Amino acid sequence: MKNNGEMDAVEIPIDGTLDLHGFRPADIGDLVEAYLHECRSREILRGRIIHGKGIGTLRETVHATLRKLSFVKGFRLGDESSGSWGATLFELQPQDK
C-alpha cells in the first residue's frame, strides 16, 4: 500500500485464468472487463474466471459484466474439472484484423 492509502498496482498474468480471490468486490467489474480486453488483444479467446462458490455475489458481478460486453461470445459455469460453480468459463469473439 502506498502512503496516501492507494493500493499499488498488481501484476496479473494474462493467461486466460483470472482468480478473483484477494481483490476487493468493488473492483471486480472493472477488473474483469480490463482482463477480458487484454485477453482478446492477445488472442486468448477462451478462459476461466474463478470467483468462488460463496453466496453468489461475485459470480453475479462477473456474469453481469460478461453480459454487457459485446465481444463476449458466451459463458457458463465450470464443470467438475474446471471449478464447478465456483468458476465461470468464457469465450470471446476475435478482434477484427
Low-confidence residue ranges = 1-5
What's the helix count? 2
DSSP summary, beta strand count: 4
Sheet-strand content, in percent, reads 15-25%
Work out the radius of gyration: 14 Å
Helix content: 25-40%
- What is the spatial order of strands in the main beta sheet? 1-2-4-3
Instruction: Give the SSE order as H and E letters.
Output: EHEHEE
Mean pLDDT: 89
The main β sheet shows up as: 4 strands, mixed
Task: Give the gist of this structure.
This protein has 97 residues and is an alpha+beta fold. The chain has two helices and four strands. The protein has a four-stranded mixed beta sheet with strand order 1-2-4-3, covered by helices on one side.
Description of the structure:
This protein is α+β, with helices and mostly antiparallel strands and 97 residues long. The chain contains two helices and four strands; from the N terminus they run E-H-E-H-E-E. It has helices spanning 28-41, 57-68, and strands at 17-19, 46-50, 72-77, 87-92. Strands 1-2-4-3 form a four-stranded mixed β-sheet, with helices on one face. The termini are far apart.
Features:
single chain, 97 residues, alpha+beta, four-stranded mixed sheet, 2 helices, 4 strands, globular, disordered N terminus
Mind sketching the topology for me?
Layout: E1 17-19, H1 28-41, E2 46-50, H2 57-68, E3 72-77, E4 87-92
Parallel strand pairs: 1-2
Antiparallel strand pairs: 2-4, 3-4
Helix pairs in contact: 1-2
